[in-house]
Specification:
Pfam families: GCV_T
GO biological process, one term: iron-sulfur cluster assembly
Helix content: 10-25%
Oligomer: single chain
CATH class of the largest domain: Alpha Beta
Keywords: Transit peptide
Protein name: Folate-binding protein
Distance between the termini: 39 Å
CATH topology of the largest domain: Gyrase A, domain 2
Organism: Pseudazoarcus pumilus
């Protein structure tokens, strides 16, 4: 993210701090299409003729089979199968792009760089602006702004040098060259989109059942605990990668005891990623953790939470202690296997 982009957003009424953005003078309308500066995300570019082979050997999904107009969920894990980062990945003309949480991006960039060795790959932290477009008429707003819209989820389109990645029916990520960021923002506003803060995007991803690993939750979860095989983030037919044996064993030996659920935290409590979850069957021992949280219109918070599967089955899950606030379980847009 460039200083000029930050200055522009500040001029638009944004407050930026701690990888988050707010528009305090604007009231968010959940029924309106929103444009969100995705300052909580960063982009790593992997360029060079060995990019596909290099990433394929390190990540959980089949990079070698990623089609030019496709996107995929992916993860970078420890040798013990614990997720260091999850990634939205797509092709670009010089290789690949990896979108991940901004608070861990420098460390992940450094760690991936340690594996380059003799591979013909160059890894860089991009200055591209990332803009989220979310809401019931997001596709129409993008079209009105002159941006080509991918027809299917997890596909990308290119308009000049701007990339549009479709996450699902109503959520899109734009990757915009720094010099075009301000003009793109203004085009979207003219088309009818309204600026909104980071919480709007976080809530959309929570409702889509799509987790984001940050500093508070690194090395806490194996892929299946985050439902990653259900959203297409794991290939079980590709070759080895760090943590592959653990991920495969979890899949085929039936040892999965935790899953990710969507929950509501009642008003009066302010949850945070990494907070522990308790259930009567585990007493004072933690039975899970919150992954991502966002304020809910009408009060309280919504969150993605990984916990023991029998917690969800009993409906008895409490935040931060056995006597903490009770969590209400909400639906996910996909079935838990």
């Amino acid at each position: 993210m460039t200083q000029s982009w930050t200055d522009f957003l500040t001029g638009e009424g944004a407050e930026l701090a701690d990888n988050a953005v707010r528009f305090p003078a604007l009231q968010d309308d959940a029924q309106a299409c929103a444009i969100v500066p995705l300052v909580h995300l960063a982009l790593i570019e992997s360029h060079g003729e060995d990019s596909a082979a290099f990433l394929h050997s390190l990540l959980s999904n089949d990079v070698a089979k990623l089609e030019p107009d496709a996107a995929q969920w992916n993860s970078f894990n420890t040798p013990k199968g614990r997720m260091l980062a999850n990634l939205l990945m797509f092709r670009d003309p010089a290789g690949h792009a990896l979108v991940l949480s901004a608070d861990i991006a420098p460390a992940i960039h450094k760690r991936l760089s340690m594996y380059v060795l003799r591979s013909k790959v160059r890894l860089t932290l991009s200055e591209a602006a990332l803009i989220g477009v979310t809401g019931p008429d997001a596709a129409g707003i993008l079209t009105e702004a002159g941006i080509e819209v991918p027809h299917d989820r997890m596909r990308q389109s290119v308009t000049d040098e701007l990339r549009c990645v479709r996450i699902d029916a109503s959520d899109f990520v734009l990757v915009v060259p720094p010099a075009e960021a301000e003009a793109t923002w203004q085009r979207l506003r003219t088309a009818g989109a309204r600026p909104a803060g980071s919480d709007r995007w976080h809530l959309a991803m929570i409702r889509a059942g799509l987790p984001l690993i940050g500093a508070a939750t690194q090395e806490e979860f194996v892929a299946q605990m985050l439902n990653f095989e259900l959203i297409g983030g794991v290939s079980f037919s590709k070759g080895c990668y760090p943590g592959q044996e653990i991920v495969a064993r979890t899949q085929y030996l039936g040892k999965l005891k935790k899953r990710m659920y969507r929950v509501h935290v009642p008003a009066g409590h302010v949850p945070a990623a990494g907070d522990d979850i308790y259930t009567p069957g585990f007493g004072t021992q933690s039975a899970g953790k919150l992954v991502n949280v966002a304020p809910r219109p009408g009060g309280g918070f919504e969150a993605l939470a990984v916990m023991q599967m029998n917690c969800a089955e009993s409906g008895q899950a409490h935040l931060r202690g056995p006597d903490g606030p009770k969590l209400e379980f909400l639906d996910l847009p996909y079935a838990l296997a």
